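Suppose a colleague, Dr. K., hands you the sequence of a protein chain of 277 amino acids and asks what its three-dimensional shape might be. Before reaching for any lab equipment, you can write down a predicted structure in token form. Begin with the sequence itself:
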Amino acid sequence: MIIHLIDGTYELFRHFYGLRRFRKDVDPPLGAVAGVLGTVLRMIEDGATHVGVATDHVIESFRNELWPGYKTGAGIEPNLRAQFHPLEEALVAMGVVVWPMVELEADDGLASAASRAAAATAVDKVSIWTPDKDLAQCVREDRVVQVDRRGKKIFDARGVREKFGVDPSLIPDYLALVGDSADGFPGIPRIGPSTAARMLNKYGRIEDFPPEVLGTSQSKALLFKDLATLRTDAPVFRDVDELRWGGHREGFEEWTLRLDSPKLFERSQVAQASIAA
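The predicted structure, expressed as tokens, is then:
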């Protein structure tokens, strides 16, 4: 059994700006939602049986209280923001398990689901579908992998080490040192990727650094590590079979008409018939 965990927020952004390029800056009201549903349905058509999607129901999280510069929803285009909640509702209508995050972030939902799924003996592999570098901390050898759909790459533990120069477990420490512009924290001045990897491979976790290595920046580095550390206790599922796709629900056809994508319903019917056969 392979568990597929999808970053719904990333996919929504990807489809929104992808459509804009092809539609000459015209934003279909729910075009990105239809795009995400099409992507998830394609995975099911290609054989995915167990699927879960994590979303940012709101952008802000507990991390905004820890660091004032942490990312917020400011600057998100209204046409994109207006599709956040419809995406969750449409996915549920399609019969897909969704975890809308409020106090936590979608990445925490993915990390929690990956941790729980990896602990299940019935699971052979967990695939996390997102290019976000902080999810690399969830990779476990070749049992939990990260899939970059856009780059067409799959990262197991060896791949993470080749990309970042450190083991997956040290990714929060690595990001704390080099910073993460996407999440809004700067890292430690004058420490780049190569230096960070060298320091971490020599000393281990930031907590284990000799005091003189970071000096007065030690406490800030630990704060940034806390920001970069994904939580694994989000309420996601109790049993992996909750993630089994059993077909769309009543009302999905109406959603596909609202999305101006009636073929999604036809495709879902075919996929549903194939699993019932």
